[in-house]
Design brief:
With about 100 residues, the chain is α+β, with helices and mostly antiparallel strands. Helix content is about 35%, strand content about 25%. Strand 2 and strand 3 form a beta hairpin. The radius of gyration is 15 Å and the shape is globular.
């Protein structure tokens, strides 16, 4: 059976000011997220993802973060058409031209 594709927003706040290890975690979290989702803004990722890949993503992130200091939230939607998006200011596409 084919995995159903959902859509997620993932945001993180990694305590990187505490130590060199914290700065290293920021880089690792970014790399893990980039494997599964599209980088949207600073510490925000978004994109379509299968339930099995979402489980893999969460499992990998749990091995990287410090659960006492770091914070990750994942907002899940059934698909990319179930939310409204409004942008204020310069769009990301314009910014990178």
């Amino acid at each position: 059976m084919k995995d159903k594709i959902g859509y997620v927003f993932l945001m993180y706040d990694i305590a990187d000011e505490e130590s060199e290890a914290g700065k290293n975690r920021v880089s690792k979290v970014f790399k893990v997220c980039k494997k599964y989702l599209n980088h949207h803004q600073k510490s925000v990722f978004r994109g379509e993802i299968t339930p099995s890949n979402l489980l893999k993503l969460k499992k990998e992130l749990q091995t990287v973060i410090d659960k006492e200091l770091d914070f990750i939230t994942i907002i899940k939607f059934k698909n990319k058409n179930q939310f409204l998006e409004e942008e204020l200011g310069k769009s990301k596409e314009e910014y990178f031209l």
